[in-house]
Amino acid sequence: MDVDMTMNRRQMLTASLIAGGAMMLGTTACSASVNRNAFPFRLTDAEWRRRLSPMQYYVLRQEGTERPGTSALLNEHRSGNFACAGCGQAAFASATKYDSGTGWPSFWRPLARAIGTSSDNALGFARTEVHCSRCGGHLGHVFDDGPAPTGLRYCINGSALRFVPAR
Fold first, then answer.
1. pTM across the whole model
2. Which CATH number fits domain 2-165: 2.170.150.20, 1.10.268.10, 3.20.20.240, 3.40.50.300?
3. Has residue 19 got a pLDDT over 80?
């Protein structure tokens, strides 16, 4: 089991390096076939640009990836929910967050009906892209090397999320 996880993490780090190289060349790191304008919450491109920071826009609307280890949400351990930074829909509960060692906030389960998925082959191998089910914003990817009980690792860009503390 540890060997498989090490290989998956090694593969993930390799993919991160490739994605980082793509970002430095000015390309996006994901090219999933999601029509981001076909969701219940829609804004014009100009409205998205006004609403989001440049990094949030790059990740959520252009399917980009932030550099690993750069998100303040890596160290967020309070009780609450992590919501889509684009539309505010709650996506992950803090109880499902864990330290995957990858440099991105990771969760083992999303909230019910909060996300959608699509195929992503942009880096030359198959991945599953995760997007917000309300606005279609790109959140990250899901991998099958996570902890019990799901065995899944939702590897999410921190800039695609905002933390909402429990009341």
1. 0.79
2. 2.170.150.20
3. no
